[in-house]
Prior knowledge:
mainly alpha
Amino acid sequence: MFTVHTPGQGVSFEAYTELLAADGFTESLLLSLGLAAATIALALLLAVPALVAVRLGAPRLRPVVEVVCMLPLVVPPIALVTGISTVLRWGPDHLSRTPLYQTFLAVQNESFPFVLVLAYTVMALPFVYRSLDAGLRAVDVPTLVEAARNCGAGWPYVMLRVVLPNLRSSLAGAAFLTLALVLGEFTIASLLGFRPFAVWIVSISGAHARMSVAVSLLSLVVTWLLLLLLSRAGTAPTGTSGAPGSARRSRTPRTSPKES
Length: 260
C-alpha cells in the first residue's frame, strides 16, 4: 500500500515505473544474479566430487568433512569480512613484486568481484553439504557406480550420467538455498565496498523510500520465481533411469517361451 498510494493523490504506480530508469538498478541486479550463478557453480564443483569420493572410498572421513563444512555456521559474517579485509590490505604490500599481484587485483574488480564469490561459497557450504548429504544417503551410490563401471562406463560418464541425475533434487535444493543467500546478503558486500542488489536497495532507501520498498517487493517476486524454476529443474522426469544401458534394455523385445 505504501508503494502505490500517495496521500492526496490516490493510487499511483510511479514507484514501480521509475525502477527501470533508476541509476544502478539493472547493474546491481545483474551483478547479484551473476554472483549467485558463480557461487552455485563453485560450491557444487567443490562439494559434489568431495562428498561422492568420501561416500565411495572413505566413509570414515565423513564426520571430518561434515565438521569442516559446518564451520562457517559458527563464524559470524562480520568476523569473516574482517578477515577478508585484513587479507586484502595485506596483499598489495607483500605481493606487489610477484605474479600473484595481478590476480589479487582481478578478484577485486568492481564489475565482477570474485572475492564475493569466494566469501559466499564459504557461507553457502553448510547448506550445500546438508542438501547433498541427504541426497547421497537416499541413493545407493556404491551400487550404481559399480553397475555402471561393470557396464564399461568411464568415470566422467558415471558422474555425469549416473550419479548427478540421481542427485537432481539435492542439487536443486543446494542451488535454491545458495541463490536465496546471495541475493539477500548485505554485510560482506557492503563492508568490502561493493554494490550488489541488496546494497543498492539500502543505498537508495534514504532518498527514495517509496522506490526502495517497491524494489524490495520486486526482489521478493524475482527470487520467488527463480526458486520456482530451480525447484522445477530438480524434478526428475518420470520414466527415466540414470543407469547406463537402461534405455537399451527397455527397448529389447520380449520373446515368448515358444520362440525361445
